[in-house]
Amino acid sequence: MSAVTFAHNKSKPLPETEEKEELTSVRITVNPVQSRMFSPPRSSQSTAGSFSIGAQSSGWCPILFERASKAWWDPRFDSKVLEEQYHRSTFPLTCQRFQYALLYLFLASVSYCIYFACMAHSDWIPFVVTSFVLMCYIVATLLFTYTKHYQKYYFSVSLFTTVFLCALSLSVFASYIGKQSTADLSLSPIGIFCICLKILLILYTVIPLPLYLCFLIGGTYSIIFEALSAVLTEDNTSLIIGIKVMLQMCIHMIGILILLMAEVRMRKTFMKVGQSLLVRRDLEVEQQLKERMIHSVMPPKVAKWLMSTQDREDEEQQKPESGKRRISTSPRQSQMIFRPFNMHRMEEVSILFADIVGFTKMSSNKTAEQLVGLLNDLFGRFDYLCAKLGCEKISTLGDCYYCVSGCPEPRSDHAKCCVEMGLAIIKAIGEFDEDTNEDVNMRVGVHTGTVLCGIVGTRRFKFDVWSNDVTFANLMESTGKPGCVHVSEATFSYIQDIYTVEEGLPQHEVKTYFIRGRKLAARSGNRSCRHSWPTNSIPLPNIHHPGGRKANSLSERGNDSEGDGSTMPMLQPQRHGSLSTLTSSRKDSGIRSRRSSLQDVMLDTSYVSPTNLLSHRVGPGCFTSSQTSLADTGRGSGSSVKGCSLLVDPTLSLNESLARLRHLRKQSDLQMIRCVQQDAGHIDYFVKPPISQLSLFFVIPAMERDYRQLHYRDSKDVTLTVSSATFNMYCDVFVSAVVYIVIAVSCFMLFHSPLPWLLFCLLATCWEMFIILLCLRETFASRGYCRAACLSQVYRFCTQWYPWHICGAILVSLPVASVFSNFSCGNVLTTPEKTHAFLYLMFVSIFHFCNFTHLNCWLKSILASTAVAGLVLLLSASYCQCSVDYWPEPTSVVSTFNRSDFLGPDDMVVETNTATVLYHCGHSLVYEIILDGILITILIWFLNREFEISYRLSFHGSVTAARDKKKIQAMKNQADWLLHNIIPKHVAEQLKSTSKYSENHKDAGIIFASIVNFHEMYDESYEGGKEYLRVLNELIGDFDELLNRPEFKNVEKIKTIGSTFMAASGLNPHIRQQNPHPCTHLFELMDFALAMQQVIERFNCDLLEFSFIFRIGYNFGDVTAGVIGTTKLYYDIWGDAVNIASRMDSTGIPGHIQVPEHCMFVLQDVFEFEKRGSVYVKGKDDMNVYTLVKKKDGVDYPTLPLAEPNNSSDEELETEGSPPL
């Protein structure tokens, strides 16, 4: 497939749908046909394999948030359904903030009402009435917010409240009309300016209006306010007007930043919460799938141990010594290093072996496809009976089926369960003959005794049982009669009151019996009718990757009574074949018809109802993220959760493909919304966040630690958005720099420049420039332009929790510190204009403490409170002397003060000016400043608290979503690890698409490697033989580790049969096609056999007084691979070549590798052989065989000349059933 970059052509509009949704950046991989159809001009070609539509991170400006529309002035999702659900989910929080704002306004109006009444200025009555009217409106509005109608009319209420507040505050200027002086007014220009700033900040932060409307109303209000102020107030010089305009712009900038960050964070939190809920749902489904998968392979007790072992291995992968063997937890006399090992001794366990009589005859006239279907049907019936009758299936070996009862969970009726299973199997084979017109029968043997149950090996493992009693149960089957259940004396002792029996021939001096029927007392429960086979399985939710069951082999057992060596008919060349005739065979297994559900949706969305789409599993963030990648992964099957690859239909036009993608994304949005609506707690998540109400720290200490370590850094695999911590910090620094520059320039223009101010300005400017330089360096470094290592280290240090709080506290305090450094009696309190300008600068600088949402709210609020307290102390303390002659008329409050309190030393009259008197010498305006300072402080505390909660919620949502994704990915990895230990990966991939697998392979290599003398070591008198199986587990584990080497990539382990290891090569068509020579996989398999010999030689060095003897049989030829089973899937190969390989092992020489003559001719270019002679092989008579001497020195594998590729071999490989690309 080729990847081509496209640019959307605006002249070709997309088809209109019911909702005009904006598509965000996506990536689509197209095939060569579409590449030719839509390829752009050569100058614009790229290898990126993507094209972008809609809002995206372009250049230096990131997108607002995931799935943001193009309208940055009105942040919204590009999906109507997402936007509607967002408002429904966050409305309680929006309503709560608006109620808090109304409470604050109520507090402010009450405070002003009391203040106006106490001051009793000449115009106090209109101000008190205005404050009372505001109180009444606020109370009425607050009560209305608690009604059910508020959600419908919240926009109108918010808009009217905003306009009402602006109009009410502007009406104050009416008292200034016709006044020559503002000294005795109830509200000074400073007080009016403070009200303006508070209204602007409330408008931008807590009143639920869109950004563009806030800006329009706020901008219009500021313009009208400054125009009236310039005309009606005394301080209307051009310099003061210009400074006030710049200060208004600073407040607008701070307000817009707070509103924008709060909005994008809240939307990010909503998306993360929705994705987290979606992931949690998938996590539950994945958990159910994994449990069904592993419980169908092994009992729950063993499965729990296996998964816990895998979890520990995953946790230790990052450790330096994670690859070493771990210490066993089993009690031992001396602690030794072993692999994890789980083996249990179970007593009173009944073992059943059942062998198909007539299997060779049945297989002789069947194609492999037909044979696999028949076996799958038959063994599927047995699986159903096994689960129904209380037995635990162990495995299938060739045409043999065996199970146990009473293991791993003990039960008292184990013998009866096995006998009933045997009788049901015989009845089922008769029904099978009727259904398929075959003539086969079953030979069943049952024995009761002690077993060791557990898992041996690390790859292609399976739950199995070992003991001498298991061997004896196998003997009971092989010495039985067709159509009869052959039981031992031990089993008979448990069932003698239930069944009538016929005595059989003793085996190893043990009496045996044949079951003739049930006694009269037990016959009432017997049914003579046909079995009711399941036709529908329990539905299992579609999961994107295949689940499966343990696979095992159909190959010949060593004691197979039917192995006559007849050649198995091969499948006709085709892509894949049928697997099962039993309807429930694949559904019950968890693999089901498992082409990826996402692939199903993509390839046929027009025929899938929305209800079915919602039931499909779509990876969270796949189509709901803003940067959906549709080309990165999943090209084999056409789907993937990570990246969500889309297999584009070459017959579709670009517009049709995009319309389909739009439909898919909408369905994904609906799926997430369904999860959100079903979770009743997500609303409480916004209203009652998981943080302490006092400190605002996370309730979970680990989350607080992560917040302090990570919240300044963005993950590298996350798309940069405005809500990202890095960009947020850049914005805070930028706004801080602008406010500082405005304040500093204003100070230079208004006041004389004292030396402390000059020194402070120099240091503050250097600090601002240093922080900006760090941010610029990080911005350029992220794009590969600047990589200064020293600055990078400084940046990483400064963005840690405590260093950044120190840096941020300095930055956020620079404006207010700049204003304070210019204060002096002669510099500020000289004229009303300068005094007013000083207070204007001071209040804007205090409001700047709302910036830097990264910083802890307590830190910023305490700094703001300190600044207000310092301002009040400067204006109210007797720092500057007053003029007694210039004493204003006393007011109701001022009259309580003694004039002597304000006289200079020795009762001398000190000349001063109006500004000093108004704001220092006991005039009521100082109380106005105190009141404004208190109200500003309360507002800053409230806003800082609310928006730190918002920021922490955003972080918590991101971390929770990432954690849930990590969990589900770990769950998927575990399921994939389990699946690929049951079924080869390439087989599992095909099962995704077809839910069935049977495939022919020409010239596949097969080896059987047996430990000849393991039975001599095995002794059940010591710990029941458990420790000897531990040794076997170590050796098999060493063999399994060889498969991880790249030089053995063609080799695939099939299974272990007792102490025999079976492997094959050439079973993966994709790998075979990449080999330099058609026989490369055969050479690799022989090298693997030699490596096994080396492993056992090293292993023998660690054994005391015992050495294992190894014997290997090698062969290659045509085989058929398949997956059979219903409740337990097994992957295996069979064919005449497999039988011969087994005979090469059983007739071989201990310590040697034996091969038939035709193998020697192929391998002799690389290996040296010695002729052994003629050996009798069952079903083949005499065969000439050879033993391997060694690998030739300095000889590499042969390769085909590049000029003469073996096209015929490639064609053969392509017809071997490889899954379609």
UniProtKB/TrEMBL annotation:
It is found in: Membrane. Pfam families: Guanylate_cyc. Its main location: membrane. CDD domains: CHD (cd07302). This is adenylate cyclase. Its cofactor is Mg(2+). It comes from Limulus polyphemus (Atlantic horseshoe crab). It comes from the Eukaryota. Residues 350-477, 1005-1145 form the Guanylate cyclase domain. It catalyses: ATP = 3',5'-cyclic AMP + diphosphate. Belongs to the adenylyl cyclase class-4/guanylyl cyclase family. It is a multi-pass membrane protein. The chain crosses the membrane at residues 98-118, 124-146, 153-174, 186-204, 211-233, 239-262, 733-751, 757-776, 797-817, 837-855, 862-879, 925-943. Residues 575-584 have a biased composition (Polar residues). Its EC number is 4.6.1.1. Keywords: ATP-binding, cAMP biosynthesis, Lyase, Magnesium, Membrane, Metal-binding, Nucleotide-binding, Transmembrane, Transmembrane helix. PROSITE patterns: GUANYLATE_CYCLASE_1, GUANYLATE_CYCLASE_2. The keyword Zinc does not apply. Residues 1-21, 309-331, 526-596, 1196-1221 are annotated as: Disordered.
